[in-house]
Amino acid sequence: xxxxxxRPLEQTDANAIRDIYAEITQQPxxxxxxxxxxxxxxxxxxICFVAEYKGRVIGFMVTYILTLGFGIEKSAWxxxxxxxxxxxxxxxxxxxxxxxxxxxxxxxxxNVYTSVRWDSPDLLSFFKTLGFDRSNFVNLRKRI
Length: 144
Prior knowledge:
By secondary structure, this protein is of the alpha+beta class.
């Protein structure tokens, strides 16, 4: 999409990101969400970007580096991402991902991981178009 600027996440982007996330999930966002976004923005180690169009945040990608993780070498993890629904399908998410991949490649990180619900075919399809495939890991959960 023309005129979209990809830039590093700033703490002041937390409200816009919360609004995008709520619009996508169509649910209220928990109270600590904005604080988590601010924390990621403040951490130099985290690689997080937003997509801006005409001065308005329309997408985001929050990632971090995983240095110790059950036998895998230093790698990256996409924690969350989102694009305002009216801008979906216009390469905004792809542009965010390419910026993240380029940054990690310069750092010498070769593997990027994420986790997607199996009942989210649109998100699965998005990651497939970026070249993601199943990894050697299985997500586990214990309810307490």
